[in-house]
Specification:
Order of helices and strands: HEHHHEHEHEHEEHEEHHHHH
Low-confidence stretches: 279-289
Bound molecules: iron/sulfur cluster
Shape: globular
Helix content: 40-55%
Mean pLDDT: 91
Number of strands: 8
Structural class: alpha/beta
Strand content: 5-15%
Length: about 290
């Protein structure tokens, strides 16, 4: 997939590369088989070393499904410790068919991962960004997620579908029939400012299910396309998201408390520097270290 010619092009134009890689070979191949059933891991990672060396900014992005969940601990170690990628973003597939047993397995994996994150931070080799914990720690440090503060669809974020129509984000653009009422314009005729305002207003509404919850502002409830895809509304949160966030936020808090009390230099630099370093700065620093 990543040929030398493509790497030349990405380097020349300083592209930020987001590489879909769902973890180690087993996890990735379970999630991302080719049509003939064979796995895509070897194809994805074939020229990875060269890409990582020359890409302006590279992030590995994994989808966490019930199939790959049992491997997320090994997968995270593989991507970050073995492949050396310093920025790993993991997004749960909230539209997947998760069972209670899957979630119990995931919880066990997260507990192992919290130990790994702690040791990896204490080792202090370099900055790294591990979204599962770091995003929730950052939310606390910055005073909590608020509708619009992390995602401002209709005002600052747009996605263009293949046919030129403009939607609030890629998930809408990828489902243009379901998202027809969220159309914001067309590249040939421009934006419909009234629709943009309606979308923005809807996104800025309070997440009603979270009112009064101790974790309000700590959970990833701000993503309107995820909420829309799972509940039909921008400001309504799915039960699965709530269950997942209730599992991960306490682990992130425990880690943060430990590392804060230790005044761990990597942790403090990542989360408490006066000017918080952007993920891209973390990544560039990581690449060049
Ligand atoms: S735990 Fe559930 S109800 Fe509470 S803030 Fe998070 S998503 Fe909302
Ligand atoms: S994925 Fe969600 S949070 Fe991110 S830009 Fe799209 S709507 Fe906003």
């Amino acid at each position: 997939l990543i040929t030398p010619e493509i790497i030349d092009f990405l380097e020349k134009y300083k592209f930020t590369v987001e590489l879909s890689l769902d973890g180690n070979e087993i996890a990735n191949n379970l999630n991302r088989p080719f049509l003939d059933g064979t796995g895509s891991y070897k194809n994805i990672t074939k020229n990875l070393k060269e890409l990582y060396k020359r890409a302006h900014h590279l992030v590995a992005i994994a989808v966490l499904s019930p199939l790959s969940a049992p491997y997320i601990y090994e997968s995270s170690k593989h991507v970050m410790d073995e492949l050396g990628i310093k920025n790993f973003v993991i997004s749960m597939d909230y539209t997947g068919k998760w069972t209670e047993k899957d979630l119990m397995i995931l919880k066990e994996q997260y507990e192992l991962l919290s130990e790994w994150y702690l040791e990896k931070t204490r080792k202090g080799d370099s900055l790294f960004y591990y979204s599962l914990f770091d995003i929730h720690i950052a939310a606390h440090v910055r005073g909590g997620f608020k509708p619009g503060s992390f995602c401002d669809v209709g005002r600052n974020i747009y996605a263009v579908a293949e046919d030129g129509r403009i939607f609030p984000c890629v998930r809408f653009a990828g489902k243009p029939v379901k998202a027809a009422k969220y159309l914001l314009g067309d590249v040939r005729t421009g934006l419909n400012m009234r629709s943009c305002k309606e979308i923005s207003d809807e996104n800025l509404k309070e997440r009603t299910e979270c009112k009064g919850c101790a974790l309000d502002g700590r959970c990833i409830t701000y993503c309107p396309c995820l909420n829309w895809d799972t509940t039909g509304k921008f400001n309504s949160v799915s039960g699965l998201l709530c269950a997942h966030e209730s599992m991960i936020v306490p682990l992130a808090d425990k880690l943060a408390k430990t590392l804060y009390e230790e005044k761990d230099p990597v942790f403090m630099r990542k989360h408490y520097k006066k000017k918080i370093e952007k993920v891209s700065e973390l990544e560039i620093g990581g690449n060049n270290e």
